[in-house]
Batch of 2 targets.
Target 1
Amino acid sequence: MTRNICALTVTSDQVATRRTAKAPSLLTAYVLHRYDWSESSLILDVFTREQGRLVVAAKGAKRPYSQLRSVLLPFQRVHLTLGRPPKAETADAQHADAPTREVQTLRGADWAGGAAMLTGAALFSGFYLNELLMKLLARQDAHPLLFDAYAHTLPALGSGDDVRVQSALRAFEISLLQQIGVLPDLSLVTLTLDAVDPEGRYVLRAEAGVAPARPGDAAVSGATLVGMQAALLHGSLPALQQACASALPEWRGLLRGLLHYHLGSSVLRTRQVMLGLQSLAPLSPAPAVAAHLGSDPRPS
């Protein structure tokens, strides 16, 4: 009799677990990219606050009268309800960036408010941020602070103020590098752990961290590094943006090399597109925006 009761208890727990696993989850997200999955459906790469980057199948999202068409837009905060992984509709579901075993089904999506849609030069900057997230973030690895930084960076991109835009881009790059664990303590010389001298000149090397500058290096003052570390410890995005604004050319050079190293041999498509537009239309916004971006397809 005792063994039967225990068996019944285990069975009940298993049923409860299965029911919990099937329950839909509500996530706050931004759409980073979308791929065609079938004639009527999409595969989405989304950045969620609760679970990080996810791959989601939006079935029927391409149909003319689908309410998802006006919701699943880039740079707009949305609430997503997800379910179980879908069955493959076509061979396209085996896209290298979205293996079927990692795909979750979109059950519903609602607009969650936010800034106006990015346009013009701001659109390029926004897609640059999206590409950085897709290339540098692992899937299903939550970064809520980085999500918040992304959400607060988007409005700055459309401000029309060149200094504010560049400061916002640099601050986000620094936040991203810190959140994925590749940004050293900027107040210490990495190899010796000596305190950075505010009067000294330093470089930020991908392999060696903060190091004293050598003749000919594109260096930054120790005071600039210490100020940035203080902003990082403060945890405020406006503080990071202000620290970047005080030395924009220096931070652009330092971060370009660091980003290029961690991106590996990958070439950012966003910058390629902008450089292509620059060659076709010199008066387009692409040249100015290309100068803002920290990653360069050429070796540093």
Target 2
Amino acid sequence: MLLSYINSALKKAHYEQLENGRFYGEISELRGVWAEGTSVEECRNELAEVVEEWVFLKLRDNDQLPVLDAINLNSSRFANAS
């Protein structure tokens, strides 16, 4: 379920090339989630790691996660873990 959530989030990512030639990616639905890399692929891989860490922090803090493509981690067994 977590992998599906991450993949759904990555589908919503927006990438752009910066003036320095690096790539920047963000997912506006996930506040504060962004990454940078030397290529789009590196940026996407970094962004996937950031999404995973962001989800774990949100669950740890009992914060609500946005539902992405009908994937609701708030009602899953992960949300009830301590």
